[in-house]
Predict the structure.
Amino acid sequence: MVQLHGDETVAYCKRVQEEVSTIKVFRVGDSFPNFEEYVLAVDYFLFDTDSQWYGGTGQHFNWEIIKSASIPTPFFLSGGIGINDVQGIQVMAGTKAGKTMLAVDLNSQFEEKPGVKQIEKIKKFIQYHRFNFDNLSFLPHEKNDVLYATQDSSFDKMDGRRFLNGIKMIN
C-alpha cells in the first residue's frame, strides 16, 4: 500500500495503482477538493488539512465541508485528529460522507516530537474510546507507525500489531 501525498496526475496514480493499493491524499482548505477524476485511479482517498506543506500540520480542517458530500471511494479522515475528537468522528460517520469513511488517521496529535509517537497516548485513545469504535479495527502503518482505524472486515478487531505490507517503489 502506498500513500500519494503530492500533486500526482491521474495517469501517475493509475500507474501506481496497477502495482499496489493506492491512497491519494486531498488537501481540504476552504472548499471541497475535486476528486472525481481520481475515482478509478486509486483505491482510497485521504482528506487532510491544506497547508503549504504536504501533511503533518497537526491542524483540523473544517469537517463540515465534506459531511454532505457523496464520496464513492472509501476514505481516511485525517488532519490533526486528537484524543478529544471521538464525538466528532462519530458525527462524521453518521453523515452522507461518513458512509464511505473507512479509517481515521491518528498521527501528529499523538507525537511527542515529529516522527516519535506516544504509544501510551494511542493506547489510551483506543482503550478509553473502545466502546465507541465497536466496528473498527486499529492497525499501525509499518513505515512510520501511523495508527489507522478501519472498518475493513479483512482485519481482526483491535489488532494493534497488524502491519501493512507490500510497499513497492514505482519509477
